[in-house]
Amino acid sequence: MANRTSDTIPPTASPPPPAPLPTADAPKRHSVGLALKKVDTNPPKAPNLAAEPVEGEEPVTLTIDGEQVTVRKGTNVLEAAKLLGEDICHFCYHRGLSIAASCRQCLVEIDKMGKLQPSCQVEVRPDMVVQTKSPAVLKARQEMLEFTLKNHPIDCPICDKAGECKLQRHYMDHDHSLTRVDVPKIRKPKHKDIGREIVLDAERCILCSRCIRFCEEIPGTSELTMTFRGDHETLDIADGHRLDNAYSINTVDVCPVGALTAKDFRFAIRTWELQATDTTCPGCATGCAVELHTKHEQAYRLVPREDPAVNGHWMCDEGRYTYKELEPSHRVQYAEIEGHQVPLFDAVALTAQRLQGKKVAFVFASTATTEANQALAELCELVGGERFILGRPIADGDDILRDPDKNPNSRGAKLAAGDVSKHEAELALELAGRAYEAVVFLDDEGELSDVVLQGLSGLTSICFADRRTKLADACRIVLPAASWAEILGTYINRNGLLRVTRPAWRPEGDRKHRADLIGDILRQLGRDNVATARERTRLLAEAHGHQELLTMLAEPKKMRPTLLRWANTRG
Amino acid sequence: MTIGVKKVSLTRTTRDQIFLPAILEGLLTTARHFFKNTLTPGMGDIDTIRYGEPEVDVKDYYPDRFRGVHRLMYREDGSVRCVACMCCSTVCPARCIYIHAEDRRDDQEKAPASFVIDELKCVVCGFCVEACPCDAIRMDTKEHMVPTETREEAVLGKIDLMKRGGPSVAVQGGAAPNYREVAPKRDPRFEHDPQ
Ligand code: SF4
Ligand code: SF4
Ligand code: SF4
Ligand code: SF4
Ligand code: FES
Asked: Which residues have any ligand 5 atom within 6 Å of their CB?
C-alpha cells in the first residue's frame, strides 16, 4: 500500500518531457501553481493521407466522374473520391494501414492508362480523369466480387459480422446476381482459437491481409501469416505464436468480413440491434475515441473511432473491457442511508447537514469527470476540509497507446482539486487516526484496504456511487451517480486534450451527474447560483476551444446514439 | 446460394387514392356471397364441418397455408435447426420471440441456448417463418393455440416448440453436419450463359 502512494495519481509518472499544453488558452483559469506537463505521446501514424487539402502544401486538382476535386498531394484516388462522397467499394485498403492492393475490388478507369487501376494504390496526379462508374468498372467490380464469393461459405445467419459486413454490403450494392458455382467449396478450419481474445473462421476470410498488416505495423508483433497457395490460401497464426498482443481485437475491427471474431462479443447480440454512441474510453489516461454499442441500457462492446490526435484508428484490448463495469445488475439506482433506500432529497439534505461544521475529508477522483471534480472543489471551498485524490492503481503501459496511469482524468482531477499531494496511503493513515468526522468520496473506485473500509464505519462516510463496489458498500450515505455511459462529461487526457463522454441512455432511477448531485448539496447549504453540469461542460469547452462539443451543447440532438443499422459497415 | 431480391413497385392510381371504388367492390363481393349462400338450394359454397365429432379432423379442412402454433424443426442428428440468427425476432412485429445464442463448438457454430415465443403476444402474421433462412421455424402445425389457465403456459420454450417439430433437410443452415461438402446446386433461375 504505502509504496503506491506517490504512484497513484501520476501526472508525472509517465515519462514526461515538459512542454506547453496544446490549447493555448485552456489552462489559464487553473494553471497557477500547477506542475502540468505535456506527455509527448503520439498515436500510431496512419500511412495514408486524408484527401482534404492542407494549407501550405500545393493541392492537386483532378476530375472524378466529371466532377473537379482539389485534394492534398500524395493522397490516393480512393480517398479523393471519398471527398466527393463516392465510396469506391474496397476490401483491403484501410487508411491506418499500408497499401497491399490485393483484393482488386477498387478498380477504376483512368484516362491514358490502358488497364483498370486499383484506386487505393494510384496516387493522384494533376489533370487525372477518373471514371468510377463506367460499365467496364461496374463489370470488373461484379466479377471481382463473384471471385471473392467463390469459396465464401455465406453463413451469414451464424456469422457475427452480418449486418456490418463489407462483403454483404458490396454484394447487395454491386453484384446482386445468382450463383454460378456448382463445385464444392474449399473447406478450411472453422472456429479456430487463435488467441486470448480471437476466434478465426478461415472459410470466411477473403484474404485481404488487413489483419496481417495490422499486426506487423501497429503492435509490430507479426503473429498472423498466410499459409498455402491459390484456392487453398489460408490465414493462420505463425508457427509457435498466438495472437496475444495487447491490441489484438483491432484485427476484428479491420477484418472486412466475419473471419475474425472477438470471443467477448461472439454471439452476444446481432449488430443491427445495437445503438452506437461516440464517447471516450475511460480505461486509461490516453482517452481513446471510441463508440459504445448498447441496446436497452445495456452495453455490449467498445470499438475504436478514428481520432488522429489521440488514438489513430485503434484502441487496446484492456480498454474494450471497461464497458463491463456498466453491468445493469450492479447499478446503484436510488439513494441509500445505512443500507436503506431513501428518496434522493432526504439523502442530499442529510449529507448537507452532516457536512456543516465538521472536519471533512474530500476525496477527489481521477476516474470522475472534470465537471464533478470542479463541483466537489466548490463544495470543499464552502465547507472547508482536507483534499485527497483517489484513483485506480498504476499498471502496465506501452508507448503505442496504453498509458500506465489507468485513470482517464488524472489531469482534470488535479486541475480541479488544486495542488494535492495526498493519496490513498495518507487517507488510510489519517482515517485510521480518526482525523476526520466525515469523508466524501467522489467515485466508488479506489484501492482502499479492508482496514480502512472498516475504519469508515465510525464516521459519516458519503459516496457518489454508480455501482456496487466495496467502497460504496462501506459508506453510510450512498448517493446514486450516473455512470460515464449516461452523462455528458469531459476528461482531460495525458496530453491535455479535452475528451468527451456522451450519454448512451438516460440514467435510470434517481441517478444523476455527480456535478448535479453536488449542486443539490450546495443548494441545501444555502448557496444559490450553482452551475449545472451542462454549464460547467460549456465553460470547459469554451476554455479548450472544443468546437464539436460546443455545437453539441447548442444542439443536444446531435448527441443521440445512432442505430448501427444506419451507420454503414465497419471494418 | 446467393440471394434473389424481388423489387415490387407500388404505384398508386387516382382510383386507389379515392378508396370508394375499392370499398364498393368489396361490399359487392360480400353481397354476392351472401345471396349465393343463402338463396341457392344446397347452400352454395358453405361446407359445414361437424366439429368435435370423432371421425372429423378439422385439420383436413384447413388450407396448407394455415398458420398455427409455431414449431421448431431439427436436423438429421436431432439438434435444433435454428442457428439463433435473430432474423425472426428482428422481423416479428409483436416482438414476442426471445432468443439467446450459444456457441455449439462444432462446425454448426451457433445455436439458441433458449428460444421462447410468447404465443399470447403473437399476432400470427407468419413473418418469422418467411424470415427464417434455415427452415427452422414453421407454423404448419394446423393447431390453434389452445386457451391456457395461466399466462406462463402460453409462453413456449425450445422444448415445447421442438416437440411439435420434425426433421427438415433444407440445405442452408445444415442438412447434415457436413453440408458444406455438398456441391451447391446451380441456381435454376440463372439464365445468363457465362460465355
Ligand atoms: S463474412 Fe459477411 S458475407 Fe460472409 S458469412 Fe459473414 S456476414 Fe455473411
Ligand atoms: S481474416 Fe479478415 S482481415 Fe484477415 S485477411 Fe482474412 S478477411 Fe482480411
Ligand atoms: S407469427 Fe408474427 S407475431 Fe407471431 S412470432 Fe411470428 S413474426 Fe412474431
Ligand atoms: S430466423 Fe430461423 S434460424 Fe434464425 S433465429 Fe429465427 S428460427 Fe432460428
Ligand atoms: S482496396 Fe484497392 S485493391 Fe483492395
From this structure: A 90-93, 101-106, 118, 120
Pairing of strands A289-295, A298-304: antiparallel
**Is A514:A375 a contact under the CB 8 Å cutoff?**
yes
Q: What is the pLDDT of residues A37-50, one digit of tens each?
A: 444 567 777 777 77
User: Given pLDDT bands bounded at 50, 70 and 90, which one contains residue B189?
Assistant: low
Ligand nearest to the CA of A272: 1
Q: Is the pLDDT of residue B70 over 90?
A: yes
Name the residue facing A157 among B83, B184, B190 (closest C-beta).
B83
Query: Containing H/E element for A225?
Result: strand A224-227
> In this structure, are residues A475 and A442 in contact, taking their beta carbons and an 8 Å threshold?
no
Q: Is position A38 within any domain?
A: no
Question: Are residues B77 and B37 both part of a single domain?
Answer: no
pLDDT at B134 exceeding the cut of 50: yes
Inter-chain residue contact A157 with B103, CB threshold 8 Å? no
Please state, in angstroms and rounded to a whole number, the distance separating the CA atoms of residues A157 and B99.
Answer: 14
CATH no. for residue A506? 3.40.50.740
Q: What's the number of domains chain A is made of?
A: 3
A143 touches chain B (CB under 8 A): no
Domain ranges, residue B20: 14-48
Separation of CA A190 from chain center? 30
How large is the ipTM?
0.76
**Same-domain check for residues A20 and A69:** no
Beta carbons of A182 and B184 less than 8 Å apart: yes
Tell whether B6 is within 8 A of chain A (Cβ).
no
Considering the domain boundaries, does residue A303 fall inside one? no
In order, the DSSP letters of A127-153 are T-EEESSSHHHHHHHHHHHHHHHTT--
Residue A2 near chain B (CB below 8 Å): no
Give the ligand at the shortest distance from the Cα of A206. 2
Q: Residue holding cell 471510441? A: A290
What is residue A196's DSSP assignment?
S
The pLDDT tens digits of the residues spanning B75-130 come to: 888 889 899 999 999 999 999 999 999 988 777 788 999 999 999 999 999 999 99
Which residues of chain A are modeled with pLDDT < 70? Answer: 1-41, 446-447, 451, 566-571
Do B183 and A184 lie within an 8 Å CB cutoff? yes
For range B41-69, the mean pLDDT: 76
